[in-house]
Design goal:
Low-confidence stretches: 60-66
Number of strands: 12
Number of helices: 14
Order of helices and strands: HEEHHEEHHEHEHEHEHEHEHEHEHH
Largest sheet: 6 strands, parallel
Shape: globular
């Protein structure tokens, strides 16, 4: 949904990769949506799927009344129930359910995706209830899923520590960001006029969530401006942080207190095509995050062919973007130096060499991603014991 745009992009990237594999191996894709979902939330996915199904309501005539179920449980009687979702999927010939959820008593094999274990590394960003909920959710995924997909080896290591009793279920399938060929055909410079931006800027395209680390950028920019007053950072992304509603206000206050209001420009959410124009026009993309499972921005930079200033965390090293400039995510002075170096040497607009290298490698990486996913999916369908 709208609060987590990366989830939609994840599915779009996956569906594209599944369509890129050889025709004989290409699966049929059924998209399951909530009954009351607004189609605008998933309309960009529709061209990539064979069928869209509304998810049945939680209550169903297939379930025994709750009181009778409780009595059976106390008496030690296990009642067999049909899950309305798996019943529906079976009726439509579905072999495997891929989900971020962890359904109990499910009548089909399912493959579960765990995005990351941020709540273990940064519990300060979560409430006690959220931590308990994520622990329960991930434990159930490990318990009930046939396989558990992690997007990086870094996340797989966390999974093995979290659920050592189900470590053999973990599989790494790293997504690849997709771009339309149209992205490369246009001159991106007019985007500056549309948003009233200087032609030379660094782009920070992150949602305003706490772990995205905007505050260190503000501190670094305050230091850098003493040497280069024209240095500009342009920010895009959702400004809602559900885990801490006051966070965006804190960012605004920090910008004012640091005196960087004229050099840290906040655009909020922008259309997808504008985001890529901004990336291409920028002298570099900035990704300062404290923690990621497999970062979408880094993947987009790899597919686009762009210079990136990126926090030196293990998953970013694993993603290994070309022309990367690393900095310690808690060191404002180091980041200030990297911003200045990039600004002094950077040239606005596309880097033709990096772009061509990215375009040459994208198809191969996409097919590899689709084939990796299908190998794990085949394990789930063929394995009824693990």
């Amino acid at each position: 949904g709208g609060q987590w745009s990366a989830g939609i992009y994840y599915l779009k990237n996956l569906f594209f990769a599944l369509q890129a594999v050889s025709e004989k191996n290409r699966p049929e894709i059924v998209l399951l949506v909530h009954e009351k979902s607004d189609s605008a939330e998933y309309e960009t996915l529709i061209p990539f799927v064979d069928e869209v199904l509304p998810r049945p309501a939680a209550k169903s005539k297939h379930f025994l009344p709750g009181v009778f179920q409780d009595l059976c449980k106390k008496a030690g009687i296990v009642s067999k129930k049909d899950n309305p979702v798996s019943t529906l999927l079976k009726q439509h010939g579905v072999d495997l359910f891929f989900t971020i959820d962890s359904p109990h008593n499910f009548g089909l094999p399912f493959l579960s995706w765990i995005p990351d274990f941020q709540h273990i590394h940064y519990p300060v960003f979560f409430s006690k209830g959220e931590i308990e909920s994520r622990n329960g959710w991930f434990s159930n995924s490990a318990k009930y899923a046939k396989r558990v997909v992690l997007s990086s080896n870094d996340a797989l290591n966390d999974y093995k520590s979290f659920a050592p009793w189900a470590s053999e279920k973990g599989r790494v399938v790293s997504f690849v960001a997709q771009l339309s060929e149209d992205v490369f055909r246009e001159d991106p410079e007019p985007i500056c006029e549309k948003y009233t931006l200087p032609k030379k800027f660094i782009l920070l395209p992150n949602q305003f969530w706490q772990h995205k680390n905007h505050l260190i950028v503000i501190q670094a920019l305050q230091l850098a401006l003493k040497k280069e007053p024209h240095l500009t950072v342009v920010c895009t992304g959702n400004t809602n942080e559900n885990r801490k509603l006051s966070y965006f206000s804190e960012v605004l206050c920090a910008i004012s207190e640091a005196g960087v209001r004229d050099c840290m420009i906040l655009l909020g959410l922008v259309p997808r095509e504008d985001l890529f124009r901004l990336m291409r026009q920028s002298i570099a993309v900035l990704q300062p995050s404290l923690f990621e499972g497999w970062n979408t921005t880094v993947e987009e930079v790899k597919s686009l062919g762009k210079r990136i200033i990126v926090s030196d965390i293990s998953v970013h090293r694993e993603q290994n973007p070309a022309a990367a400039i690393y900095f310690k995510p808690d060191d404002a002075r180091e980041l200030a130096r990297k911003l200045l170096q990039t600004y002094e040497t950077g040239i606005p607009g596309p880097d033709e060499t990096l772009e061509q290298q990215a375009r040459d490698g994208l198809k191969r990486r996409t097919v590899n991603y689709g084939e990796q996913f299908l190998r794990v999916a085949s394990e789930c369908v063929g394995d009824v014991t693990v």
